[in-house]
Amino acid sequence: MASSLLSRQLALSLQYNLRLSAPGCRFASKAAPKTQVEFEYDGPSMKTEVPGPRSKELAKQLGEMQNVGAINFFCNYEESRGNYLVDVDGNRMLDVYTQISSIPIGYSHPSLMKVLSNPNNMSAFVNRPALGILPPENFPEKLAESLLSVSPSGMSRAQTMACGSCSNENAFKSMFIWYRNKERGHNNPSEEDIRSCMINQSPGCPNLSILSFMGGFHGRTMGCLATTHSKAIHKLDVPSFDWPIAPFPKLKYPLEEFTRENAQEEARCLEEVEDLIVQWRQKGRPVAGIIIEPIQAEGGDNHASPDFFRKLRNIAHKHGCAFHVDEVQTGCGATGKFWAHEHWGMEDPADIVSFSKKMLTGGFYHKDEFQADKPYRIFNTWMGDPSKNLLLAEVLNVIRRENLLEEVSRSGKALLQGLYQLQAQYPNLLSSARGVGTFCAVDIRDEATRNSILIKARDKGVLLGGCGDRSIRFRPALVFKEYHVHIFLNVFNDVLAEYN
Ligand SMILES: Cc1ncc(COP(=O)(O)O)c(C=O)c1O
């Protein structure tokens, strides 16, 4: 079935040999040729505005069953491939946002289709096990082939989970358990611990905290939400913990032009972190762990230097706090290194690294000492999904075989260069272009203009995402090549020209 779908897709791709022909001046990109024959389309192709009539009709139907306020449009995933997402009205868009940054190697990748059609894999897709109690025979081998083959430095253990939030939530629990066992000096809880935890009281439910950063995003479950500080809409009306929140550096871009000011700003934030750790210890609510994104994503693509992270890591060491790096959005290659924290150049970058999105499965890596000491402490029914490990193993093969990290660095440079050029061309509209690999962003003069640019770009066949108050974030798949960058820049240029 999968192979006939593939050949139908190949035939279709020959039919759709359309080139983008938007009017107006072309972005000054030189050669942007395709370097290889691919199965994907040649460019965007728009038939209606988005959402089109069919999408609107479906939204009405779904609206009878769910809140549809966030739905952009309905998709035709059968026809979507590579960097192109096709909607139910037949519009084909270059996807530079990829399902909130979660498609690693484009839509309907032939290698992933093959994994699905392999009879040896069928059972993993049909029989979803309760992994924590009844794993399949090949689980250790598949885990080694997938997640453990890309373990962050110093970590040889990985716990799979479902989504980003439940990965962080369980990682927090691991840090608290580690911290309490460290305080006790052993892992045998007292009678009082056991009795008091059942009524949500200390010492069984201890007054411990996680330090997070203003602007950070770590998910929407109750524990994670206490460490999320990107937008009020995520947090409103939900009770939270009294945990410390440190300022995240507000840097000036391009970073290399403002090294002195930026270093001062980072030093100010680090000082605040240390003060908060001391204050919360004095308050009787010690900081068991620090959580941070290598680049704050949802909060506005805010960067900090490797030096900042190295110093923060040292502060965590000094005060006996666990250091949790949330790579849910930055992980799996988007910055040109597999993990964004690799840019810090550290042998011991973290105690815990959580992941999800492009990794296809959620979960977290951890050092040995963060392994929960008893069964069922870090546990849920599914604890991940072995079929996702099969797909991830193949994604990693494709990344290696096609040198996609190099590709990301190359297209990332072209993207950032293009954004710099557009920023110079439209100084009243764009500012603070920034990025590592294709993990790039640019600020727009205000929120309303940002939102209208996103819609105009979509109507011209390019899907982008917003972040923070007024930024646009670029989150293409790892198969986004230089010629895709140039297709994007041309459309973006046409959109921006409408505001002059
Ligand atoms: C850095 C980060 N952490 C955690 C999450 C939560 O992941 P999920 O939406 O899968 O729960 C996200 C989601 O955007 C994220 O970007």
TrEMBL record:
Catalytic reaction annotation: (S)-3-amino-2-methylpropanoate + 2-oxoglutarate = 2-methyl-3-oxopropanoate + L-glutamate; 4-aminobutanoate + 2-oxoglutarate = succinate semialdehyde + L-glutamate
Keywords: Aminotransferase, Neurotransmitter degradation, Pyridoxal phosphate, Transferase
Keyword Transferase in record: yes
InterPro entries documented for this protein: 4NH2But_aminotransferase_euk, Aminotrans_3, Aminotrans_3_PPA_site, PyrdxlP-dep_Trfase, PyrdxlP-dep_Trfase_major, PyrdxlP-dep_Trfase_small
Gene Ontology BP term (one): gamma-aminobutyric acid catabolic process
PROSITE patterns: AA_TRANSFER_CLASS_3 (PS00600)
Enzyme class label: transferase
Coiled coil: none
Highest taxon, organism lineage: Eukaryota
Cofactor list: pyridoxal 5'-phosphate
Function field: Catalyzes the conversion of gamma-aminobutyrate and L-beta-aminoisobutyrate to succinate semialdehyde and methylmalonate semialdehyde, respectively. Can also convert delta-aminovalerate and beta-alanine.
Full protein name: 4-aminobutyrate aminotransferase, mitochondrial
Source organism of the structure: Esox lucius (Northern pike)
